[in-house]
């Protein structure tokens, strides 16, 4: 059976967790393919909010297998905390949570290196979540990393020590103020490693291959968003993995010709957390309203998110890079009450009007060109059918579908599983 992909089309926080949770009943396996605890996937059901960082968003469905793929980086300490939360809620994950032996491990010193690197950058900092993501992927591509499978080998602690010592020397090199007690961090880390080792560690590419042969349905779950992709995002203000569709091939071992549907998730407006260019960013009342009504605070760091109008130039680019086949529009309810809505349909770029994403979208190079839409007053959060949606929202949706040439099959009108309108 072919594999479907679900990924974010903006700068992350599009609401992927909610949609994976909504779609899980259609799939046998939910597989995360990149990123790590920098992600915060929020799910709301039965009046309760759940935030997942590394564990796939299908974990609350008893029958689904949840796989953490080889492309993911795992912090055992954060992973253990996620498991503790699941234990509190009596979620039985022992038989349904699988971890790739080829996934890389985030060490305490990776986190420290992240902090030292950011501190040394001063104003030019990336705005990293400081979870050690960049340094861990650097060790992966530098061929120095420690993988989950290594934890089963007798000499892994020697390898650990050598790498941690090297990291400490690197931290010193940064010459920034950083207080830490590595002994304490290590006690917590080694405890968490033993929990990780007690889970089902597998050769996940083989598992995925056999599952496809057995006609199992598989949904690959992305983290972050396409504009944070290490290759196609707003470099260097990006994360350190391939968040786009190709990342699912390398992050799970799925062949490109096995991918069928690509679900692209986007917010009805745009948000960004951390540094980096954001052409449609708002610094006025409209931006404040989006932030307030949309509760725009990072699920992992709690940082306020920057808000702005929908950027169709960037969205089109993300659809192209990913080969999106279906779009899912999130947080439409947040736009209720605006007199006028704006959508950026082109950029003024170095004296020209362009409709593609150029190399450089910093403020000094790009000014957005907007198309206005009439807003709607109705509260959408109590609507459950497409026929209930206001005409102005339907016009907004129809315009996006025409421009992007891709159907919008889901409109989300609130955080709860139930607040999901299928079209
Ligand atoms: P890092 O991945 O923690 O190194 O952060 C790099 C950049 O990606 C920063 O701007 C972060 O704010 C952003 N980022 C990382 N993960 C997420 C996410 O899950 N949602 C939104 N932004 C993220």
Describe the fold and architecture.
The protein is 31% helix and 22% strand. With 423 residues, it is α/β, with parallel strands linked by helices. It has eleven helices and 20 strands. The chain has helices at residues 16-23, 76-88, 108-121, 133-141, 156-174, 182-197, 204-213, 246-252, 285-293, 312-322, 391-404; strands at residues 3-8, 29-32, 41-45, 48-52, 65-68, 73-74, 97-100, 104-105, 200-202, 218-225, 259-267, 270-272, 306-308, 310-311, 326-330, 340-349, 352-354, 366-374, 408-412, 420-422. It has a ten-stranded mixed sheet, sandwiched between helices. The chain binds inosinic acid. Inosinic acid binds next to α4 and β10. Inosinic acid is lined by residues 11-13, 38-40, 126-129, 131, 133-134, 223-224, 228, 237, 239, 273-274.
Key phrases:
globular, four-stranded mixed beta sheet, binds inosinic acid, 423 residues
Helical segment tally? 11
The level of helicity is 25-40%
Estimate the strand proportion: 15-25%
Detail the poorly predicted runs.
none
Shape: globular
Q: How many DSSP-defined strands?
A: 20
Q: Give the structural class.
A: alpha/beta
Give the spatial strand order of the biggest sheet: 9-7-5-2-10-1-11-15-19-20
| Gap between N and C termini | 25 Å
Bound molecules: inosinic acid
| Residue-averaged pLDDT | 96
Rg, alpha carbons: 21 Å
**Largest sheet data:** 10 strands, mixed
């Amino acid at each position: 059976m072919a594999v479907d992909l679900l990924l974010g089309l903006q700068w992350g926080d599009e609401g992927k967790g909610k949609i994976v949770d909504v779609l899980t009943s259609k799939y046998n396996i939910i597989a995360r393919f990149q990123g790590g605890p920098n992600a915060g996937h929020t799910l709301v059901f039965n009046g309760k909010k759940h935030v997942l960082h590394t564990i796939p968003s299908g974990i609350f469905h008893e029958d689904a297998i949840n796989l953490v793929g080889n492309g993911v980086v795992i912090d055992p300490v954060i992973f253990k905390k996620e498991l503790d939360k699941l234990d509190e809620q009596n979620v039985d994950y022992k038989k349904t949570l699988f971890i790739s032996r080829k996934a890389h491990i985030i060490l305490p010193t990776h986190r420290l290196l992240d902090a030292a690197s950011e501190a040394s950058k001063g104003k030019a900092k990336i705005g990293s979540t400081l979870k050690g993501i960049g340094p861990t992927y650097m060790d992966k591509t530098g061929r120095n990393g420690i993988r989950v499978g290594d934890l089963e080998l007798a000499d892994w602690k020697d390898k650990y020590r050598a790498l941690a010592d090297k990291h400490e020397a690197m931290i010193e090199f940064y010459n920034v103020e950083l207080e830490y007690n590595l002994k304490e961090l290590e006690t917590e880390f080694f405890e968490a490693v033993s929990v990780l080792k007690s889970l089902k560690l597998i050769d996940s590419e083989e598992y995925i291959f056999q599952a496809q042969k057995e006609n199992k349905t598989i949904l690959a779950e992305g983290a972050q968003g396409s504009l944070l992709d290490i290759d196609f995002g707003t470099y260097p203000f990006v994360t350190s993995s391939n968040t786009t569709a190709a990342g699912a091939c390398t992050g799970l071992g799925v062949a490109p010709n096995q991918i069928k549907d690509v679900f692209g998730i986007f917010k009805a407006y745009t948000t960004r957390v951390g540094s980096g260019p954001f052409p449609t960013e708002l610094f006025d009342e409209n931006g404040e309203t989006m932030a307030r009504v949309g509760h725009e605070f990072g699920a992992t760091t709690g940082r306020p998110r920057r808000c702005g109008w929908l950027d169709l130039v960037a969205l089109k680019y993300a659809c192209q890079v990913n080969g999106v086949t279906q779009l899912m529009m999130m947080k439409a309810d947040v736009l209720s009450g605006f007199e006028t809505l704006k959508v950026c349909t082109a950029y003024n770029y170095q004296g020209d009007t362009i409709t593609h994403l150029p190399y450089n979208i910093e403020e000094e190079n790009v000014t957005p060109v907007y198309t206005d839409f009439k807003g709607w007053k109705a509260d959408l959060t109590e609507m459950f059918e497409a026929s209930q949606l206001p005409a102005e929202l339907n016009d907004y949706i129809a315009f996006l579908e025409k421009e992007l040439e891709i159907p919008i099959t889901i409109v989300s009108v609130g955080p709860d599983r139930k607040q999901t309108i299928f079209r």
